[in-house]
Design a protein that fits this description.
4-stranded antiparallel β-sheet
Length: 201
């Protein structure tokens, strides 16, 4: 074998051709697109499930009010219906971090109007892992509101865009800010933060 032939063979086997590199890049792009599309579908599914769970809680609360004429947690006659239940004060409000806030879920469960899939520290959890909360006038919304904690900001924005006006400061779906302060609202952050969604019931 001549020196030139050996040199040519070395060049042919030393690396990938431009065509081979192009094919590899196309395959990687297609795979990434498939993975991202799958993640999008999973997010879509979770947001759809979150909306169904939110509607189920809203229906349970409204049914409780129709049946018993008080909000769950605020019900002053709960112990008469279910021995061991704790009565509320009947003032028409569920205040943030009050005993009535956790009792609201107990009243709903005892009434068989709502069956949570999981509970953490007295609060049922939604599909994205955060807590459901029932709070009076959260985010300047009227009456008792349902809040869903610990969503990614992009999930919260997508939920608001799909089910309301997309503005965290207005409409029936709002961002109460970082501390569930009942007087504040805030726009949805663009990315990187965990936020709470509050919905008028």
């Amino acid at each position: 074998m001549s020196f030139q032939t050996a040199h040519d063979d070395h060049h042919r086997t030393a690396g990938f051709s431009l065509l081979e590199l192009s094919l590899v890049l196309i395959i990687i792009t297609l795979l990434m697109g498939t993975v991202l599309r799958g993640e999008n579908l999973m997010d879509e599914g979770r947001l759809h499930r979150l909306a169904l769970d939110q509607a189920a809680v809203a229906t349970a609360v409204q049914s409780y009010v129709r049946l018993y004429h008080f909000f769950p947690g605020d019900d002053p006659k709960a112990r008469e219906r279910w021995p061991g239940a704790i009565n509320g004060d009947g003032d028409g409000r569920i205040l943030l971090l009050s005993p009535e806030e956790t009792q609201a879920w107990n009243h709903l469960i005892l009434s068989h109007l709502f069956v949570p899939k999981s509970i953490s520290n007295g609060y049922p959890q939604h599909i994205l892992g955060g807590n459901f909360r029932l709070i009076h006038h959260a985010a300047r919304l009227p009456g008792v509101t349902l809040c869903m904690e610990d969503l990614l900001s992009l999930q919260a924005m997508a939920f608001d865009n799909r089910h309301d006006d997309g503005d965290g400061r207005e409409g029936r779906i709002r961002n109460p800010g970082p501390s569930l302060n009942t007087n504040d609202t805030a726009p949805w952050p663009i990315e990187g933060e965990r936020v709470t969604i509050c919905v008028a019931l």
